[in-house]
């Protein structure tokens, strides 16, 4: 266990210098807190819940100076307590640590800190003084001792990091409050720039993201979470027409030698993201895709009523605009191999294969079902081909879809648009347990989908191979298990039959090309996904992987985040032969593993104002077409929604024994 010498955390004072036993009883549990990087001990940690010192020789004055320096640098300037208070405190501590006469004493600094805490208008101003006040009120004698001789205090080493709950929840770590600030300032093009630092598919993400950020938004404790996804879409949709941002090769600052080539296999979100960031690094990138268009599961697995294909195409075309190449109709194992790519001179290979193979239910009668039976992915591919005019598809009678995720919701809503008379969802757990996005469930209800929860299929009925119905059994919840989750079990004697003409199994997907990469020397894990380490490197040197082929079926934002991470690792592999240490990633891991971000809200003066929602087509109209259901909000609504953000920024800093290696800033 990490030994805490003294500090204050969540208002509780710890001081093992006097009574180790008494302090130990209330110590916070810390995981992986001994070293920041290999051989570099963490000497102290400062944050919004207090501070902890692990080395008695740490200077509080110097450490708090660096902490307040970060606060002053990041203050938005909207309110006087934060704008002026952070600067005055920073400058006073700077004078003290340099052995100079300060215009402010510790009493003055404490007064300013209390004013910031009580009267600042955002989370940054209100929380940046917590550690300062805790130190002044509980360990002032140590701070006075450090400055008593008016000699310079030796500068300490470390780093400061600013974040927010929404940032930490986002797989891509997008600076959400910053891009909202730009909307509030009337600069949507700057807001888009914040997004494009992380991924190229902002308009796509603004339509289909599952909104981890909104789940973490502290505004929900006041009324409703900020419409972060809605604002993202607004920003991206402003960049259409003659004023749209154009991507060109001359945007790349340092184009590399033509021999610096990287192959990306798969033009889905992970592959597009990886190629995008590699191109911005100056590499020459070829994207090999087995189909005839880019987008992967975003292209074939998300219906047009949620994601118009022209919107997706505009964003995948960024790869070509930046000088990359799409090589369509190139299937791994048939047209290209990893061995062959290295033989052609590619320096590295990224696998973004996705999960495009459906999963069977394993119930009686499934093997005999031919006519009218689909996996969820195969059905959505047929829907895609229908909308594109490649192969018309029409449904009649009743449709049963088994599953509770977004793929299941996409299937049932598409079936309605294809002419089905009645569409049913069958899900073995409760409606509250459904992993699908809540808005998708609501939309399906509005489109008259019938939900059969706590129900499970036991047999598929066929006649001459053609689906005629499905036998179902009622389920009941059991008592919670050790994890706290309630399982389900069949209710004896509750079997019943539901007639249907089309049956869709939408219970999951799996990696389709796993055996092919295994033949090329890439190890798979026990789930038949590509095995990678923390850097997304596979078992074969120079081969990296990310997205669904590594994690199993996941979300678009996770895939794009993997593409960014892999691009950084590939750059390091090619340029240095090893992957750098990323200090911001390390800080995020400390925060996540130790749950340092408190699940509460800082009280601030805000009026109740419920969120703006995207305008939608009438359910009776949209059931007859594949046109986009949700529309973009107005500039006025975007400004109003941006005003709801409480800027819940937090600052964290560490003091370390040695300099921290420089990776990503």
From TrEMBL:
Provenance organism: Tropicimonas isoalkanivorans
Superkingdom of this protein's organism: Bacteria
All residue ranges annotated as the NADH-ubiquinone oxidoreductase 51kDa subunit iron-sulphur binding domain in the record: 61-106
SUPFAM superfamilies: alpha-helical ferredoxin (SSF46548), Nqo1C-terminal domain-like (SSF140490), Nucleotide-binding domain (SSF51971)
InterPro entries the UniProt entry points to: DPD_II, FAD/NAD-bd_sf, FAD/NAD-binding_dom, Helical_ferredxn, Nuop51_4Fe4S-bd, Nuop51_4Fe4S-bd_sf
Alphabetized Pfam families for the sequence: Fer4_20, NADH_4Fe-4S, Pyr_redox_2
Name the UniProt record assigns to this protein: Formate dehydrogenase beta subunit
MF terms (GO), sorted A to Z: 4 iron, 4 sulfur cluster binding; oxidoreductase activity
TM segment ranges: none
